[in-house]
């Protein structure tokens, strides 16, 4: 994961086809001393054009899923495919759960409910900008578990995937840390669970992400569910 530029306010882009939603988000974000809205777009096509024309890239993009011309999934994949990509937080509601998992696979760093309280949205922006993923709150953890119940069950004769091979490179302690990450535990909570220093947990998390070739925690967690390291509701 690349280090974030902390020399100025967090540069946020808003991508949503509802102008009133963007206006509400802008008002909340621009009221914060450490954030500024640098771009808006009403669909994925406009988002790619506007964000590509910025003199300095956006740090965090709030991305709606359902939009005309180009949806949020396609736009997320395009935005996160290049080097020095912005971090994307997908905006969703429970009735489009299946799209969120695909967005995470496409490179999004997290997701939040569209009607989340303002303080939750601001917290998500800061968390993602700091290099973490938005998966810790219990409501988000429940949503993640709900998503992965829709994952197809591999056939018995399906050969091991590259993800399974990567998992085999984890040490016992790293696998234990991954399991706790997948249950929505923060580094501080994991440290308390394992009776180790938080710095030690951060080291384990870094090695896990490197070995799994995961962009951030949320992709590692999805992989943990997909490969059966943890199971929904467990």
From TrEMBL:
The keyword Transcription regulation applies. Residues 11-129 form the Response regulatory domain. The lineage of its organism: Bacteria, Bacillati, Actinomycetota, Actinomycetes, Micrococcales. One of its GO terms (molecular function) is DNA binding. The modification 4-aspartylphosphate is found at residue 64. PROSITE patterns: HTH_LUXR_1, HTH_LUXR_2, RESPONSE_REGULATORY. This is Two component transcriptional regulator, LuxR family. Keywords: DNA-binding, Phosphoprotein, Transcription, Transcription regulation. The keyword DNA-binding applies. Residues 163-228 form the HTH luxR-type domain. One of its GO terms (biological process) is phosphorelay signal transduction system. PANTHER family: TRANSCRIPTIONAL REGULATORY PROTEIN NARL-RELATED, TWO-COMPONENT RESPONSE REGULATOR.
